[in-house]
Amino acid sequence: MKTAILLLFLLINSFFGKSEQSWINTRISSTVTVSFPSKPEHQWSKKETLYAYATDQVSLTVSVKALSEHLELTPNNQRSILEGAVHGFSKNQGTVLYSNTDIILGTTPVKEIHFQVKHPMHTSCTTGYTRYFVSGRALYTIQCFFLVMKNEQGEQVKNLFFNSINISM
Question: Looking at domain 24-167, what is its CATH homologous superfamily?
């Protein structure tokens, strides 16, 4: 019995260890990198750059929107930008905001929200997390949506994704 439990533990550990090692570090901009489980889709327009990756369990996205060149990026203005992003997201119909937390990544102020929102493909709800921050002259939105009921594997993917965010000045 102990051998079977040990083999199961080693199998699970090797699976998660390999998935962690195979993540692809993606340069989002000159100051930001984020890792994805494999190469994300990349789309861009005049207003936004988007990186996206999805499995049957989670959807991971990074969105970068340029800020106005006329906007002075003081700490107060940056805080207002982050609060405006959270407010804009949370006022969507059907959104339930569970938490709105201020954190610091390195020296960068970040807003992290945990929420429930109606799934865009069907009538059920899904939960997710978003981190907002300003780097350079851009607003970054980094999201993890749970496409099925939140579970340990999806939570591990979210943690690896969010912990991979690297902001350099």
Answer: Mog1/PsbP, alpha/beta/alpha sandwich (3.40.1000.10)
Location of structure tokens 């937390």: 101
Answer for the pair 129, 106: CB distance below 8 angstroms, yes or no: no
Q: In this structure, are residues 141 and 62 in contact, taking their beta carbons and an 8 Å threshold?
A: yes
From 12, 19, 8, select the one nearest 159 (Cα to Cα): 19
**CA distances in angstroms from 82 to 41, 141, 151, 153, 157, listed in the order given:** 25, 10, 28, 29, 24
Question: What is d(CA 111, CA 90) in angstroms, rounded to the nearest whole number?
Answer: 13
For residue 102, give every residue at least 6 positions away whose Cβ sits within 8 Å of its Cβ, in sequence order, or none: 109, 110, 111, 112
Determine the Cα–Cα distance for residues 121 and 38; give it in Å rounded to an integer: 23
Mean pLDDT, the chain cut into blocks of 10 residues (169 residues total):
29 39 91 96 93 92 94 92 94 87 94 86 81 95 86 90 93
Q: pTM to 2 decimals? A: 0.83
